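Renewal narrative, Specific Aim 1. Our central claim is that a sequence can be written position by position from structural information alone. The example that follows is taken directly from our test logs and has not been curated for this report. It begins with the structure tokens describing the chain, in the order in which they were read.
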């Protein structure tokens, strides 16, 4: 049974999540809460506020998180496989080792976020903001980064096989040690890029 909730009744909502009730949540405030151990898999969490919340290791696979605020959140090892995160704010979030494989992150703000060793294979990051993001050792093979802003992003040792960087802004980005076999850079801004050799 899916229950729609638009009022902010966070304590009651968390009890229902603990009881495995399938919820459809819109504009709920979870900011600053410790949500480790909760299961948000497949839930609708549109426009919810997770600012500075702790969600390390939480399963949010297949969740609908469009336009949600996850800025500054602790998301180490969090599972976002096939989740919808379009236009979400994930700036300054710690996504170390997070699994975002197949996720939709169109126009999502990941600026200044830590995505070290994150799995982003087959993710859609078209028009995403990744300014000064840490993507060291991240896996972005077959990901779509068309028209994304990766200015000053660190992609050192990243796996970029078949990645789409068409018309992306990679100015002053670091690709040293990265594997970018079959990656597409047509029309990309490569001004001042490090580690990219034609």
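The sequence written for that structure reads:
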């Amino acid at each position: 049974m899916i229950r729609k909730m638009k009022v902010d009744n966070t304590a009651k909502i968390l009890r229902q999540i603990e009881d495995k009730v399938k919820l459809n949540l819109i504009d709920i405030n979870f900011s600053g809460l410790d949500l480790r151990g909760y299961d948000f898999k497949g839930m609708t969490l549109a426009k919810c506020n997770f600012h500075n919340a702790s969600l390390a290791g939480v399963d949010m696979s297949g969740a609908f998180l469009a336009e949600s605020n996850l800025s500054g959140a602790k998301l180490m090892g969090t599972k976002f496989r096939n989740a919808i995160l379009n236009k979400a704010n994930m700036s300054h979030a710690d996504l170390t080792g997070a699994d975002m494989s197949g996720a939709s992150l169109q126009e999502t703000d990941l600026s200044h976020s830590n995505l070290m060793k994150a799995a982003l294979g087959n993710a859609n990051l078209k028009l995403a903001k990744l300014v000064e993001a840490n993507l060291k050792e991240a896996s972005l093979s077959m990901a779509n980064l068309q028209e994304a802003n990766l200015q000053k992003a660190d992609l050192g040792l990243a796996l970029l096989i078949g990645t789409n960087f068409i018309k992306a802004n990679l100015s002053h980005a670091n690709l040293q040690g990265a594997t970018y076999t079959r990656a597409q850079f047509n029309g990309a801004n490569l001004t001042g890029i490090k580690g990219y050799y034609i």
